[in-house]
Amino acid sequence: MGFWNRFFLKDKNKAKSHQEKDSKKAVPKTVEAKKEQWEEIPFYLPTDENKELVSVVAASIAANDQPESSFVVRKISKKNQEAELVAVIATSIAAGMKPESQFVVKKIYQRK
After folding, report:
1. Which of 11, 67, 105, 109 would suit a FRET pair with 32, their CA atoms being 20 to 30 Å apart?
2. pLDDT for the residue 107
3. Which residues does 62 contact at the CB level (< 8 Å), separation at least 6?
4. Do residues 54 and 73 touch, judged by C-beta distance below 8 A?
């Protein structure tokens, strides 16, 4: 089997090496400079407001299904209203062009 593998894998290895060399050359330095001008907007912001109240409410809702369990709330976050508004506007514009499609906003960037 090793005899045949040398012939068939040689072509695949050559093709991969050519693709890797081409892809490394294709990345211009201007792309890196453009990334530095943008910052990502998070969909959720950390908060410390009413941490005890939120923890008690969340644990009581979760304990309703599993009364024998114990729960620990480690982090509380609130929705970023700005990111939500931008996502709704962007998907509305895209849906106007393609009404039969579905869209998911994964990241939002803002110019620094």
Report:
1. 105
2. 92
3. 69, 71
4. yes
